[in-house]
Design a protein that fits this description.
The complex is a heterodimer of chains A (about 375) and B (about 200). Chain A has about 375 residues and is mainly β. Chain A is built from five helices and 30 strands. Among the domains of chain A are: about 70 residues, OB fold (Dihydrolipoamide Acetyltransferase, E2P); about 120 residues; about 60 residues, SH3 type barrels. Chain B has two domains: about 70 residues, no CATH class; about 130 residues, no CATH class. The chains are: A mainly beta (about 375), B alpha+beta (about 200).
Chain lengths: ~375, ~200
């Protein structure tokens, strides 16, 4: 008989309705348009700054389905000319209709490479209006660094790993929580968005997301090879502010693992909302879309700054009947449920290992797993 | 209480272990992506245990690579000792297979004692006899006579055998070599007659 308590690791998954700071920053020279203690709404312009320079390229030959040697004959603009987003850059008539290439951004046609078919575009310097993105109160301004600290109400989501510095954008859920997401699921309409994929986002989808200018991707699983290519190593706990062009958050682990329903449900509820994704810290911040949240924010004072805390005060807890857990090893990896019973005697597994088993009640089934293979979900 | 971790958490750079190397130890040739993801999940969820035999086999293949990279955790060459922690023993059953994996990966030669470590306490498990001059023992034959406490048996060349004799002291004579006294234990006596370091399929 086992009279000793069994302990499992705690996993912080979400914190609902927390008051904390978010930092908005100017990515170029500019001017802050708000003052200390000012109340702001998501669409309020809090700063204006200018982005200059930078290049991108489009494979014109592939877009028009022509050989690289002749594709530039179909350009409707001369090399060196300026164009604006949405304008026609090239067209080609064929038996089945006409292919068009429109400008993905404002820019200048820099050059064309007839060997590769790549059309190089230089971005035009442009003025960007930085919006608050949240309902909140301005708590700190730093014109030197171009940083604005806003006190706001948020829901925090925590993944198990991630990479990439903080990015912000509108949340778009493009798949079911158990879906595999390939490149075809990522489209032009997701540009500048933070996309919630399903159980596994494939490398081809990651590359397309990067080339289309997505701000971020959230997925239940990722292949180790793709993650290593982005983050360098799994042992990257100390990496902060990694600039890889976009941010990636993985909520469950490596491979095809359904995105946990706890997180997926919150993502669904926040579809279309403006959010902040920080892969390096494995956090997704979902500001409250409720205008009335300002009433709570007014009443709370925070030490400056107070950012999302990813570290738990306790790392383990006693496993008890009723504990909310997630399974972290196959089979049933990613499944979530409640502890229904804890065995009092150890079981010899097929692997030959002796361990105590726990019975879990999931939404539609009951299952028994070793107690070491679950984590207690800590949410607030 | 600190976070619960497993045996693999003590070995850093596990993500540098090649899935192709892992695959080479397995009968079942799994998809390299799946093996890579298995290693990744081993790192982030090191406290978990394999439920089925296939997962245990993959874990054992990872362990082989870990032993290759950090033999000092398992074998004290100066003292001629193989040290097995209690955690390792419980995590990779059965003990005979775990010991075989360590011996096959490190290939120690001579008389080596095998110990179980629990905290600061050591328990004697057995002795490995790994003669250096195998060809000299076999003299061109494919088997050799091994006499244990007066009882003779024949062992094949390139074999690695474990006899579960728990007697404290035993007299052993292999071929024409000098009789030696060794100690048995929970594991027994291991005789490594592999000529060249190679892996025997003990699955």
């Amino acid at each position: 008989m086992n009279n000793q308590p069994l302990f499992s690791n705690l996993r912080l998954r979400s914190r609902l309705n927390q008051c904390l700071h978010i930092k908005r920053f100017l990515k170029g020279k500019g001017k802050i348009k708000v003052s200390l203690n000012q109340e702001v709404s998501p669409n309020d312009v809090i700063a204006v700054y200018e982005i200059s320079g930078g290049f991108t390229s489009i494979n014109l030959a592939r877009e028009l389905n022509l050989s690289p040697q002749i594709a530039d004959k179909n350009l409707t603009r001369k090399i060196g000319s300026t164009f604006f987003r949405g304008e026609l850059l090239a067209s080609k008539k064929s038996l089945f209709g006409q292919n068009f290439l429109t400008a993905p951004t404002d820019g200048v046609l820099e050059n064309y490479n007839p060997k590769t078919g790549e059309l190089r575009i230089k971005f035009l310097p442009k003025e960007v209006e930085l919006t608050a993105g949240v309902f909140g109160v301005i708590d700190q301004l730093d014109p030197e660094k171009g940083e604005i600290l806003i006190r706001t109400m948020v829901t925090e989501i925590f993944g198990v790993l991630g990479t990439g510095s903080e990015k912000s954008g509108h949340l778009s859920v493009i798949a079911g929580n158990g879906d595999l997401v390939n490149a075809s699921r990522i489209t032009e309409s997701h540009r500048e968005k933070i996309v919630v994929a399903g159980a596994l986002v494939l490398g081809e989808a990651l590359r397309k997301a990067f080339s289309l200018g997505l701000k971020g991707l959230i997925s239940g699983g990722i292949n180790l090879s793709d993650y290593s290519a982005l983050a360098g190593s799994i042992y990257g706990e100390k990496k902060i502010d990694t600039e890889i062009g976009f941010s990636v958050l993985v909520t469950e682990g490596f491979g095809l693992i359904p995105l946990g329903m706890d997180i997926y449900k919150i993502a669904r509820e926040n579809e279309g909302n403006f959010v902040f994704l920080n892969g390096d810290r494995s956090t997704l911040i979902l500001p409250s879309p409720d205008p009335n949240s300002i009433l709570s924010i007014r009443k709370i004072r925070l030490p400056i700054p107070t950012f999302a805390k990813t570290v738990l005060e306790k790392e383990v807890a006693e496993l008890k009947v009723g504990s909310k857990v997630r399974v972290v090893w196959p089979p049933f990896m990613g499944a979530q449920g409640e502890v229904l019973a804890i065995d009092q005697t150890p079981t010899r597994l097929e692997s030959g290992i002796f361990t105590f088993m726990v019975t879990l009640e999931l939404q539609n089934q009951k299952l028994k797993v070793p107690y070491t293979n679950v984590e207690i979900i800590q949410d607030f | 209480m600190p976070k619960l971790v497993g045996i693999f958490s003590y070995f850093k750079d596990l993500d540098k272990v090649s899935p192709a190397d892992i695959s080479s130890w397995l009968r079942f040739k799994g998809d390299i992506h799946i093996l890579a993801n298995f290693i990744g999940n081993r790192i982030i969820y090191s406290q978990t245990v394999p439920i089925n035999k296939l997962d245990l086999d993959i874990d054992m293949a990872i362990l082989r690579e870990v032993i290759k990279k950090t033999p000092e955790y398992f074998y004290l060459k100066k003292e001629d000792k193989i040290i097995i922690s209690k955690d390792l023993k419980e995590r990779f059953p059965p003990l005979s297979k775990l010991v075989t994996i360590i011996i096959e990966t490190i290939n120690p030669k001579g008389l080596i004692t095998i110990h179980l470590k629990e905290g600061n306490n050591y328990q004697f498990l057995g002795t490995l006899i790994a003669p250096e001059n195998i060809e000299g023992l076999f003299k061109g034959k494919q088997s050799v006579s091994v006499v244990v406490n007066g009882v003779a048996t024949q062992l094949l060349k390139n074999s690695l055998s474990i006899s579960g004799v728990n007697k404290v002291t035993m007299k052993i004579k292999i071929g024409d070599s000098k009789e030696i006294s060794v100690n048995g234990g929970q594991l027994g006596i291991v005789i490594d007659l592999r000529d060249k370091p190679q892996v025997t399929n003990n699955e």
